[in-house]
Amino acid sequence: MSTIANNISQISKRIRAAAQAVQRDACSIHLLAVSKTKPSQAVREAYAAGMQDFGENYLQEALSKQAELTDLPLNWHFIGPIQSNKTRAIAKNFAWVHSVDRLKIAQRLSEQRPADLPPLNICIQANISGETSKSGCTPDQLVLASAISALPRLKLRGLMVIPKQTKDRAAQDAAFTTLRDLQSSLKLPLDTLSMGMSHDLESAISKGATWIRVGTALFGARDYG
Ligand SMILES: *Cc1c(COP(=O)(O)O)cnc(C)c1O
């Protein structure tokens, strides 16, 4: 087995164990392979090992990988910060966007979503740590969810968070519980909690994650050269 295939099987075991610990059906937890900084060959290997959903943070990098992988039926998720001048390309080339945090960006994505594609799946990124330097809506700003849910070419699915990194399980659990509570407080028909990464996926699953976004544990450490 290749390293990537082996990693995927390890992650699947972690998902099953974490789901079982809280009596969740492991099928309700989707694994997003975060391929940022990794070459298209690594995506091919992950696809061969059963992965179909890939997450990218940087538009140019994603577009060049997509161009090299047109022979594969992949679902691309945009998970990085979004500038207004990137919305047209994102609306055209992705199935999901997990990192919407402004109404203006959502409006542009809706206007620019090509008519021949299904509605773009959207998660609103929440900032629950109160760090103003971070992307994401503060809990107060999440009222924009109802305006986003009314946009015609988008399908609002739920919330996404990147909590402050910690090894402390209780702190991880508290952050993910906060996101889940925020999602229910919106009183909208949402089915997605995008939360949990390589180091905290067990906690996220215990608090209801439906997409976990895993890079390092799947593709190995990233080398930002
Ligand atoms: C890089 C990244 C991930 C993956 O993080 P790992 O710790 O490598 O698993 C998940 N979500 C987002 C938004 C990221 O930018």
Number of discrete domains: 1
Radius of gyration: 17 Å
Could you describe the largest sheet, including whether it forms a barrel?
8 strands, parallel
CATH superfamily: Alanine racemase
- CATH class division: Alpha Beta
Strand order of the largest sheet: 7-6-5-4-3-2-1-8
Question: What is the 3D shape?
Answer: globular
Unreliable residue runs? none
Structural class: alpha/beta
Number of helices: 9
**Tally of DSSP β-strands:** 8
What string, H for helix and E for strand, traces the elements in order?
A: HEHEHEHEHEHEHEHEH
What is the correct CATH architecture? Alpha-Beta Barrel
Which hetero compounds are present in the coordinates?
pyridoxal-5'-phosphate
CATH topology: TIM Barrel
Overall mean pLDDT: 96
Strand content: 15-25%
End-to-end CA span: 28 Å
Keywords: Pyridoxal phosphate
Organism: Candidatus Pseudomonas adelgestsugas
Function: Pyridoxal 5'-phosphate (PLP)-binding protein, which is involved in PLP homeostasis.
Family: Belongs to the pyridoxal phosphate-binding protein YggS/PROSC family.
Structural summary, described in words:
This protein is α/β, with parallel strands linked by helices and 225 residues long. It has a single domain, classed as TIM Barrel (Alpha-Beta Barrel). It has nine helices and eight strands. The chain has helices spanning 3-21, 40-48, 59-68, 87-93, 103-112, 144-149, 169-185, 201-206, 216-219, and strands at 30-34, 53-56, 75-78, 96-100, 120-126, 154-161, 192-194, 211-214. It has an eight-stranded parallel β-sheet with strand order 7-6-5-4-3-2-1-8. Helix 6 links the parallel strand 5 (120-126) and strand 6. Helix 4 (87-93) packs across helix 5. The chain is globular, with a radius of gyration of 17 Å. The mean pLDDT is 96. It binds pyridoxal-5'-phosphate. Pyridoxal-5'-phosphate is lined by residues 34, 36, 57, 79, 162, 197-198, 213-217.
